[in-house]
Amino acid sequence: MTAAATTPIEIPNPLREGLAAERIPEPATMVIFGASGDLTKRKLLPALYSLTRERMLPGRFAVIGYARRPMSDDAFRAEMHAGCEEFARRRPVDPGLWDGFAPNLFYQAGDYDDPKAFVALRERLEQIERTLGLPGNRVFYLSIPPSSFATVVRNLGVSGLVPPPSAPAPAHFSRVIIEKPFGTDLGTAQRLNHDIHETLTEKQIYRIDHYLGKETVQNLLVFRFANGIFEPIWNNRFVDHVQITGAETVGVEGRGGYFEQAGILRDMVQNHLFQVVSLAAMEPPVALDADGVRDEKLKVLKALRPMPSSEIDANVVRAQYAAGSIAGRSVPGYRDEPGVSPTSQTETYVGLKFFIDSWRWMGVPFFLRSAKRMPKRVTEIAIHFKEAPRLLFGRRGGEGVRPNVLSIRIQPDEGISLNFGSKLPGQAMEVAPVTMEFRYGSSFGVEPPEAYERLILDCLLGDGTLFTRADEVEASWTWISKIHQHWEAKAAAQAASGAIELLPTYAAGSWGPEASDQLIGAGGRQWRRP
Amino acid sequence: MDRATVEKFSRGEAITVEVDRIEKELASLWQAASRGEDGSETRPIARAALWNLVIPAHGIDSLSRVKRLVDELAPAMPARVITLCRGWGQSLAGISATIESNVVSRPGGARLVFAEEITLAGDGASADEHHFGALVRSLQIPSLPTAILWFDASPADSLLSNELLPVSDRLIVDTGRCGGARELAAVCRTCAINRVEVGDLGWLRLAGIRMLFAGLFDPPVGGGPLAAASHVAIEHRGPKVASALLLAAWLGVQLGWRPLDAMSGSDKGPGIRLRFAAAKGSDGRERTAIVDLRPSPGECGTSGIVSLALDAGGPGETYRVRRTADNHAELTVPIAPPRTVKLDSRTDAELCVGALGPAGRDPLLRRVLPFAERLADLVAARGAG
User: Fold this and answer.
1) What is the rounded average pLDDT of the residues A308-332?
2) Where are the domains of chain A?
3) Which of B51, B206, B250, B340 to mutate to test the interface with A (most CBs of A within 10 A)?
4) What is the pLDDT of residues A401-420, one digit of tens each?
5) Of A438, B29, B31, B188, which is most buried with the most CB atoms under 10 A?
6) ipTM surpassing 0.90
7) Is residue B364 part of a domain?
8) DSSP code of A416?
9) Which residues of A touch B222 (CB under 8 A)?
10) What is the pLDDT of residues B302-317, one digit of tens each?
């Protein structure tokens, strides 16, 4: 993947040659909006600390936390230190390293909708840049409620924190990382894209989806396009169907109010899982750069077969978790969670059957399920191949014959496994399924970096390959919004008739509602037990 | 296969076997280890290997060092390790063989990953290189790459040249173990004459300091100070002159310098002074750059390097990386206050894992080793190192 050069360098550094594997960005300042929130403490600062520890950040680098809550620099540093102690990949925090890292952390309090506060932020930023000899490269991380995205971006422009999009090529970069959710439907996503494009060019926008920072998701590209044996069979001639699972054991974890508005289809499928689908289903890109990869992902999303309203109920299963057991303890049902309406229509389980209308995938059903309160946390994509054309091994021998399955485990315990039939030792011709496995942990013995480390580093390097482009976001919303519109119309009709029908349930700790088994089972198929 | 032997094998203890039955015994032991106490197949086993790793050792002490290394290496890099021990020191009728398992528990799962270690020992006539060569060829797992870890900094001998390298894909040496310039030159020559990929643990030990030093010249500083460099000082622990020479060779290659001569003594007393012809300046005249290698008792981690400092000509225009306590380094540049960063000291096993990965085929090392050989020859000719 290539990094876009943004700053002209008059005299190159010859000592960098041969160290290319270690990509070091230019000196920069990162401003984190929403710095008093959980993500900053749990993910962002631990990621920056780990990058510092791995010497992947430039020698001069500063962080300014920005949020409404008043806080001193020292208090912010202490809070971030505690966050790193608890959540950094390598713990405990190295005191010597922290002593060098902490003085470059600053905090500025201010509202997100107050232009004057942004002017004050700009003045503070410029003063820090002067003091630390930073050249003016800036990354703004929007870890804030989505309702504030457009306001903050507009204020970045108005205050001069980022140059106007019409400005001639600036000497230093200004980039903005935006957390999900990017819109709640097609209309809001389009409006948001329109609003932020008034201040930023698309190349300055990095819509982060932490799934794309996971090692196995990136390995999908390597697996498919660096190995000659898989790509020839990666199509409708050999693949029977594809299963994608995104299962969580957690419930709404105190975020019932948020989840009521979102639902699992918005929260997981539109972004994370559709990104996984697009990487698994895309054609080989012309180049492994940002637009090369994203152009191909976009084609997949555009090729999703539109689902007429009349077919949605037959191809989309939704449900809510009921009380059950997770990890040996009783857990409440969704409608009993705090912040959740007793008559909630929000889905915690969704199962989808869909098709990708391309030459490669024509006729191959994709089955996707995502849910909370499942028996185990697992995200995987499984390619189920067609059966051998003729079974040679008789009734008894053939009992062990199963179609080959290639499963790519994204989390946890990242790796790839291939199931195939093997002759059981003995006189009889009996077949048993066996598994060939590759696991990152056992094969490489190294801990892969956290997704946020990879993605923050890529943004600093100007590499947008693992970030989502505006047209990708809109393409996935185009498809997903149809389902939401159908559900909303049904809910409105029920409300009008006064006959509100609650969603079906599944017991927490189970693999979902029966309807989901029926969704996949029509062709004799069944969900994997990952 | 009796249960006691199987248990012993599962615990990773050495089992003596006949040389011609190594593969059969390994297969039987793995099969038996996958069964429960009552013979039922309850513990499926994944035998894992990414490399055939051949490690020659000489004598009991060297073998013990290799064994410790392999024990540390096994969890991070599953490999079939074939250790060859010559100079066993005991009279042996022929080559003796032992087999061991290296067992790694998988996090979150009951299943285990196993790799295996074969030790072949001989002395006198039984240690004839032809025997070792033939056994290695028979024990290589097909279709896996083979690496030779030439752990001791001894010059290549016929076992390496005639028997092992022809069936290998990668040679891993350790210039950090070279006692002086002559040994360094010999190791560099070994690496130069073969067509296999070359990794060097000594080079990998220098990776941290190279990266930190290179980082001092990232934008906005840029390469200007490097082009104007007049003097470089490398402080090293007394016996680690080979590491200092390798570091000087890296600078020489990257900055386009040409070695002129070497002499005893540095700007601050003992040490070695190297003179280079540097690139022409704006006046069209060739400049001379001096590199002083000075012994120092300071902190050096495992790399042997205490500090690397470059004077760019102007007063106070010094760029320095200095190792400090507890695996840290202090970076000094003219335009900002000094700062402290982490500088890991990796263990030999970690370095081996690195050398078996992409770092073991570093094209830059291919260019640095011949340069280091020339520097080492200059120093050795002066009797300075």
Assistant:
1) 92
2) 21-179, 213-448+482-521
3) B340
4) 788 999 998 888 788 889 88
5) B188
6) no
7) no
8) E
9) 9-13
10) 899 999 999 988 778 8
